[in-house]
Amino acid sequence: MATTKIWDVSAHVSKLLAYVANKNKTTIEMENKNVDEAERLAAEMLGLPPEHFATEEKKFVTGINCTPENANEVMLTLLEDTDSSDIQAYHGYQSFKPGEVTPDVAHAIGVQLANELWGEDFPVVVATHIDRGHAHNHFCLSATGFSGKRYHDCKATYKLMRDTSDRLCREYGLSVIEKPKQQGAKHIAEVHAEKKGIPTIRDQIRADIDAVANYEYIIKYFYNRMRTLGYTFERRGQYLRIKPYGSNKFFRLDKLGAGYTEADIEARVRRNAQTMEWKKIEYYKPTLQEKPKGLRALYLHYLYLLGAIPKVIPKNPEAYAAIKDDIRRARMYSEQAKFLGKYGLETKDDLIQHALKVDPQIKVLCKERRTLWNKIRWMKDPEQVQPIRDEIFALTEKIKTLRKEFAMCKDVYDRSASVERTVMLIEFPQLLEQEKQKSAPKKDVRENR
Q1: Distance between CA atoms of 344 and 339, rounded to whole angstroms?
Q2: Where residue 442 falls among pLDDT bands split at 50, 70, 90?
């Protein structure tokens, strides 16, 4: 049973190649039975350990129309000969059922799949990862082929990839998914955000539509209210599209999910008019409370403001736009507030001191982990290796925790000023008008003379 995915990559192609062909993910050690006694004697004379010739590495990385070594150069050369585009490559994925396939068979299927789909025109690097307990293939596909044409990623090409993968699995006697679940196409960033429990931009648009549609009872008022929140509407053909404040991308209403098409929204608004079950929107009223003191107090107050949306909405779209993106990051701010309270960090100097304590601990643990990795490098007995591996994994978890704290110190240090400004902007919107007046060009009084 193999599942397939493919998505575009806008980052530098070398980063994708480094991940795909990572030695730690694609290499296994095998016994070398072709070493004769003369080579072993030479190893002893050179002072090499007896285990030097005991193993050899096998790497599951293959280049098609290129080699793993020159793939980066080939792909970048092809990209230079075409029109500029953000998409530099495509990252393909083929995963097999755990325990159903060996790395050799998985790699053979991956190479055959890449040859059939892209071998005529595109350079591809196929790598089989074996670090997760089951073999799965990764593909780094150049966005531009030797013919100068760009790879067209669409439903048809993805269906061809899936069908070809299923056919190869049947040829190798592997199981396939006979009735795959029908799911709407999602960008990989949205998939990752959903896995982490972070709402996406589409989630925020849906939440704003719900907040306004539940109150308004005239469709004209609905669109006017959405515009005051910073949204822009545009009709492209028969479809109505919406764009959030500060975004460069429009989203089609019919792509937001069930209940969010233009007809669905109008029906919801008409239903409010028929039942008259609507309430006046409660605008945010700035208070004269004191400015929060200390970083933890600032973050707790900001979390309160984030939790008040959309029940409490700032009047001006600039203030709402400033806070709207951070609603999706509320979990991050909550963790940072807990972190600040846990260690009693109230000022930026406290953050610097805590970071200076954490950094040496990270270095010591990394050095200790490196020593353990070197220790088991030549060990063959699994019973001796496993306790050391467990110790390595425990050190890795400690390092992750400390690195997260170090990153939090840096993020809070860099972000606290903008958080404080956003809080003041929401509670005292008159500050925004003052800033606009200060930034406006002054008239030259000499012109009137």
Answers
A1: 8
A2: low
Query: Which structural domains are found in the chain, ordered by start?
Result: 2-185 (3.30.930.30), 195-275 (no CATH), 295-436 (no CATH)
- Cross-strand partners of 150: 144
Cβ atoms of residues 336 and 432 within 8 Å? no
Report which residue type is found at 101.
Answer: V
Question: DSSP labels for 123-176?
Answer: -EEEEEE-TTSS-EEEEEEESB-TTSPBP--SHHHHHHHHHHHHHHHHHTT---
User: In this structure, are residues 161 and 151 in contact, taking their beta carbons and an 8 Å threshold?
Assistant: no
Residue 280 has what pLDDT? 57
Angstrom CA distances, 361 to 348, 364, 366, 423, stand at: 21, 5, 9, 35
In the 8-state DSSP scheme, what is residue 184?
-
pLDDT 10s digits, 387-438: 888 888 889 889 989 998 998 898 888 878 777 777 766 666 665 566 656 6
- pLDDT over threshold 50, residue 227: yes
Is the separation of the CB atoms in 423 and 292 below 8 Å?
A: yes
Q: Is residue 217 within a helix (H) or strand (E), and if so which, with residue range?
A: none
pLDDT at 10: 83
